[in-house]
# Entry
Amino acid sequence: FSLSSLSTSAIIPKANVSLSIPSSQLVENLCNGKVIQIRRFCLKALSTPEVIAAMDTTQLGTLIMKLGAANAKETLNVYNEIIKKPGSPQDLKALNYPQATNYDVAVIGSEIANCEKELINAKVQAPRLLTGNRFMKYYVSMGYEITSTRELENQNEY
# Structure
């Protein structure tokens, strides 16, 4: 799929940021990490002035979690819009899959994949929901990468 074809409102709420803003070395290092699935998404999502100004991995990690939380909230809003509209029982069953409504659990990559699988298998037409879930997987990988980086930094301090 193409990142340019996806809505960025869930990635960077209320911010129009182009990729022309240079990223910081912290962001470059993170987006080159082993678990980062799509480097271009990572660079784009982390191209806000606030993120670029992050001075250390703790600040960067905090900002990643805020962006991920904003994405989860936006995706949950899409989910809530969908369930308010009349639909088939099959659609509602897929949308009421427990992990689809529980973002405390669904931030775990495999659970997000299970949610996506249920929606696709039920042929639920919810591209914004699927996109939000996909983006959440990317934020999870960025969170994992920054956490791993912090663990290594802490080991080196002792």
